[in-house]
Every structure is written in structure tokens, then in C-alpha cells.
């Protein structure tokens, strides 16, 4: 079992931390960790595991690692983050004791910036090596960064979906799970891999494996790895024969579905050691720059209005702000592990119809925790079973083949292999575990 020191310094990595949901996660973490009884650390679900002391609140120190592609943008984000922290904690400085607590936390707060480009295996390994040499352990890894190659909206498809949803008396579906966003296909990274797949899935997978030793050494209890999925993750966007999603018309949705598969299998494997725990979270619908190519100007403002209308008419998924979208992630980072479900029994899952028999046959379903917001703008956390798991379990198993032996004897031990060697090895590994692999010329 891992060492547990409730007063130990959390060392948290957030990828893509300079804007959007990643920035909201950083801001919300700081606000909660300085409090005696942080709202986001409250137990929300029934006990599902053994007692876990977790962190001691208020935390007296924190190292927050902003892992970003652009150092310049990250520096600007760090300045903004610390300025917002000072504003956010004004209300927490009511008494001399409160002022002393907040001041002590601020004095022991380290917000570090490390460059990470998930579209480059070399950059990802260099980041992992730098982190491994700089910090004694990692307590949390939030795999948040992601890309979406959106081009435009197909107004014809939009009208078709709206009409279909009207007939189904489910108009909110059109602004919750859009099927009309056109995406760019056949995008390749400089490493010769599917670009969206490498940024969203494989880069984080390499990072997780390369930092395995540092995660296992966490001093705040079992390390927590959070995989950022999406409300739009869908099985019909994933093709096992095009697992890098190069030819897919929906690579964003497909890669997020892959993350669900990987996390579910890693969670199952991690149960035996108890050193590292894996979770799936998603922010719901958040207004951010990831879909900036779809609409701009007046249409962007109209979109925000539509989001607020959807929330007012009952959608819990329209969190809109990055602060509200970060609720599930921060809860999973801070709440006691005993009260964070990873799987649900079939008997406890709200299933119906023919699907129930298939789910009960396997017994357990992985869980995704997601952010929600009510009509009044109050944020919270909910969970939903990952229903496709019984049909795709073998995909998750194949994906989670352990490459730890390679990473441990290469970059993190000082060899620093060339990108060609690493990609060559990676393709050999993939070829041995997947049904179809296209060769590349290095």
C-alpha cells in the first residue's frame, strides 16, 4: 500500500492548464485547498471502498504543475490564476486565524510551468523526464488537454437533428449532443501518428506510463489519474480497424470514447496494487475555445444564450463556465477515495430493456463522473455508468498492454532514445496487440 501523510504537499499536474476547463480546474483547486472544509471534498456518493484518510484540510502547501504547449501563454495564465486566487479568497479572510491560514498557504504555493506538446512523443518523454528529476512524487495527474479538428457546422445536418429531436420531444439533445459539427480528416502528427489521437489519447497514455514510478511514490495516499472524457464520447464514432481515427469523420468523439475504454481497464488492473487509481471525468457543455472554428462573432454570443436557455429548461449538462465544468474533476481530486465510485454493479445501474441482460452478465460497469449545474447556476457532480463497456471490454484490455518496462529502461533512466526508436518500438507494440496496423516510414 502507498505511504499516506495527510499533511504532505499535493503535487498536481494539469495538462492544458492555460485556458478553458484546464484553467478552471487550477482555479477551483486553489480555492478549495485553502479551506478548512472544502465543498468539493465532501462525500457525495455511498461508501464504495476501504477507509482512506486523504488530504488534510486546509492544505498548508501545494505544487501545481501547469503542463502547457506554449510557455508564453502559460506564463500569462499563471499571472491571471494568482490574481484570481487573491480575489476568490477575499471572503475567506474574515478572522485573524483565517487570514493567517490563507497567507500561509499562499506563501507555500508553487505554481510551476513545464512545457508539454502531446503531439510529440519526444516532448512528452522530455516532460516526464524533467518532472521525474524535479519532484519526489506526483499525487495527481489530470489528463485534460485535448484537441478537436472542427471545421464548420453543417446547417443541413443541424436542421435534420433539430427536426428529429422535436419529433422525439427532446429538443435539448440538439445543443447537448450535436451531430452536425464537421471535422477535418486524415490529420497526421510529425511523428507519423493520427494527430487528434496522439494529442487526446496516446500522448496522455505515454505520460501516465512514463510517470508510473513517481505516481506510485505519492505521499498523500494512492495517486489519482484523471482522464478527461466528453459528453460527446460515442461508440459509433470509434472504429477498431481505424484505431488512430485518421479516416474517421468524428475523431474527437472517437478519441474520447477510447479514453473511456483505457481508463476502465487501467482501473481494473490498478485494484490489486492500490498504488494508483484511475478515473474518468467530463466537464459537460462548457463554452471554450476548443470549438472556436465553428462559430464566431454574433453567432458565438447567440450560442452562449442558447446554452443558458438549455440550462433554464432543465439541462444539467450545460455548465457553461470553466469553473462549473471543473466541479467533477476537482471533486475526484479531493474527496476521500472510499466515496468515489469507479464501478457500479449491474443491479445498481439504472438500466432497462434488452441491454440489462448483457450488463448483468459481466456484473460491473465502469463509471464516469461529470459536472452538472442547476437552473440557479449551482454546480455539482453526478455519475453515469459506461454502458458500452460489455461490448468493448476487449478493446480496453488490448489498449492497456503494459509498456512500463520500456519507458523505465529508456528516457527516465537517462538513455533518452531517439524519436525514431521510440516510434518504432511503439508500432511493434501496437502491431502485437491490435487487429490492424498501417506501417510507416521513419
UniProtKB/TrEMBL annotation:
GO cellular component, one term: endoplasmic reticulum membrane
Domain of life, source organism: Eukaryota
Keywords: Lipid biosynthesis, Lipid metabolism, NADP, Oxidoreductase, Steroid biosynthesis
An annotated Gene Ontology molecular function: 3-beta-hydroxysteroid 3-dehydrogenase (NADP+) activity
Any one GO biological process: steroid biosynthetic process
InterPro entries: Ergosterol_Biosynth_ERG27, NAD(P)-bd_dom_sf
Family per similarity comment: Belongs to the short-chain dehydrogenases/reductases (SDR) family. ERG27 subfamily.
Protein's name in the database: 3-keto steroid reductase
Amino acid at each position: 500500500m502507498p505511504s499516506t501523510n495527510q499533511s504532505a504537499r499535493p503535487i498536481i499536474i494539469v495538462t492544458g492548464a492555460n485556458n478553458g476547463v484546464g484553467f478552471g480546474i487550477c482555479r477551483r483547486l486553489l480555492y478549495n485547498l485553502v479551506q478548512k472544509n472544502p465543498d468539493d471534498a465532501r462525500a457525495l456518493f455511498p461508501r464504495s471502498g476501504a477507509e482512506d484518510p486523504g488530504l488534510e484540510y486546509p492544505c498548508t502547501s501545494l505544487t501545481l504543475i501547469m503542463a502547457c504547449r506554449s510557455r508564453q501563454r502559460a506564463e500569462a495564465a499563471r499571472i491571471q490564476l494568482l490574481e484570481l486566487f487573491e480575489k476568490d479568497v477575499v471572503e475567506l479572510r474574515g478572522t485573524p486565524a483565517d487570514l493567517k491560514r490563507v497567507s500561509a498557504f499562499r506563501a507555500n504555493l508553487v505554481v510551476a510551468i513545464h512545457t508539454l506538446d502531446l503531439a510529440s512523443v519526444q516532448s512528452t518523454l522530455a516532460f516526464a523526464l524533467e518532472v521525474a528529476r524535479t519532484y519526489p512524487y506526483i499525487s495527481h495527474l489530470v489528463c485534460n488537454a485535448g484537441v478537436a479538428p472542427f471545421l464548420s457546422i453543417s446547417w443541413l445536418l443541424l436542421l435534420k437533428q433539430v427536426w428529429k429531436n422535436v419529433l422525439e420531444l427532446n429538443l435539448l439533445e440538439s445543443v447537448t449532443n450535436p451531430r452536425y459539427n464537421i471535422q477535418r480528416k486524415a490529420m497526421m502528427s510529425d511523428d507519423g501518428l493520427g494527430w487528434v489521437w496522439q494529442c487526446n489519447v496516446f500522448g496522455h497514455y505515454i505520460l501516465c506510463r512514463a510517470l508510473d514510478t513517481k505516481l506510485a511514490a505519492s505521499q498523500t495516499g494512492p495517486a489519482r489519474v484523471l482522464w478527461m472524457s466528453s459528453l460527446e464520447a460515442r461508440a459509433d464514432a470509434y472504429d477498431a480497424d481505424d484505431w488512430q481515427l485518421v479516416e474517421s469523420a468524428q475523431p474527437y468523439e472517437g478519441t474520447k470514447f477510447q479514453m473511456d475504454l483505457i481508463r476502465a481497464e487501467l482501473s481494473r488492473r490498478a485494484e490489486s496494487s492500490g498504488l494508483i487509481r484511475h478515473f474518468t471525468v467530463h466537464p459537460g457543455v462548457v463554452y471554450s475555445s476548443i470549438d472556436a472554428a465553428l462559430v464566431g462573432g454574433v453567432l458565438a454570443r447567440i450560442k452562449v444564450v442558447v446554452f443558458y436557455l438549455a440550462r433554464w429548461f432543465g439541462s444539467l449538462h450545460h455548465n457553461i463556465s470553466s469553473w462549473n465544468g471543473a466541479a467533477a474533476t476537482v471533486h475526484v481530486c479531493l474527496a476521500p477515495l472510499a466515496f468515489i465510485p469507479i464501478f457500479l454493479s449491474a443491479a445498481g445501474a439504472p438500466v432497462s430493456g434488452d441491454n440489462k441482460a448483457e450488463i448483468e452478465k459481466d456484473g460491473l460497469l465502469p463509471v464516469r463522473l461529470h459536472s452538472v449545474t442547476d437552473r440557479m447556476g449551482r454546480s455539482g457532480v453526478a455519475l453515469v455508468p459506461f454502458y458500452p463497456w460489455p461490448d468493448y471490454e476487449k478493446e480496453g484490455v488490448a489498449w492497456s498492454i503494459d509498456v512500463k518496462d520500456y519507458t523505465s529502461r529508456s528516457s527516465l533512466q537517462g538513455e533518452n532514445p531517439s524519436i525514431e526508436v521510440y516510434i518504432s518500438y511503439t508500432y511493434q507494440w501496437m502491431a502485437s496487440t491490435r487487429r490492424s496496423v498501417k506501417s510507416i516510414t521513419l
